[in-house]
Write a structure and sequence with these properties.
Shape: globular
Structural class: alpha/beta
Number of helices: 11
Bound molecules: N,N,N-trimethyl-histidine
Number of strands: 14
Radius of gyration: 20 Å
Amino acid sequence: MAVLRDSLGTLKGIVEMATYVQAVDIRHFATADEREALTREALTREVRRGLTARPRSLSPWMFYDAEGSRLFERITTLSEYYPTRTERAILAGNADAIIAAAHGDRSLPLRLVELGAGTASKTRILLEAALRVSDDVAYVPVDVCPDALELACQNIASALPEVRLQPIVRNYVTHPLQLDSFDGTTLALYIGTSIGNFSPQEAELILGNLCSQLQTGDALLLGTDMVKDERTLLAAYDDNDGITAAFNLNLLHRLNRELGANFDAARFRHRALWNSAESRIEMYLESTREQHVSIEHADLDVHFVRHETIHTENSYKFTDRGIRNLLEEVGFAIRGAWKDSRGWYTLTLGCLRSRL
Ligand code: AVJ
């Protein structure tokens, strides 16, 4: 805990995290040209690191260019991909209870801070519940993508004009959040099982940093996909329509578009497997034959042997005990947990314990 609370230590730890190590923080760069140049720089670094490493890997932040974001939105509507719809149903059925548990003193203002806000479509359910108990509600969406943030703000502003909006463009992984002090209750939201992309150590760093920005009595709502039968898990990451495969393969198209690479996506295939020892789905791109690929702007030639893989994503699945350990380790006490009837997904509310 001492390490996590030391701001320099936290920053260093997170910047050096393996999973999102080369993600770019674009908050200071206003023009599209500058953003593009920085993104290209980050892609180049990550490609050099990941494609020269053994085993080869690329970081999942690279999925989310415009096309990748569009494909991910499609994934969330697939019959096999249950997490999004399950989480939404849990929120719809329990929003009032969640807000009541998080916000004991109704006379105080309430602030919702969301990490990785995306389009905020599920958050709206909680904001509506918040407005039912308080007339002083602020929403602070935090996202690395300014376009996504703008969409989130537009959505909330038109549906719930009473909510005060305070968007923050920030990569909360590489650049820990710094919240203004707030005279009221803060409820942090980390939903959509985004935490699943990170190893347990990385997850502790992210939540530990968040914790350092909260005050005693503030709360965190964490969304986590749960361990379940392997067939269901694998289907969610290898759907019949091939949308997840297209999402994974889009990484190669992106490198062709943005780094002048010459990947032939037809010579790679999408692979998803369940690693029960690590409790995670792993996604790979597998080279179906021996081949050479050049990534011009990274000045890199890569030789793939047949069946060689690039590890592109981990998606950790949780147990009740794992969630409790993680939250308690970083300083939260569990105040409530809500699940769907099958127990496939959990929303857990942790309250910040007083710091000694
Ligand atoms: C956005 C990280 C929550 O792990 O389920 C979906 C990403 N990858 N299908 C997940 C994803 C393949 C998703 N998260």
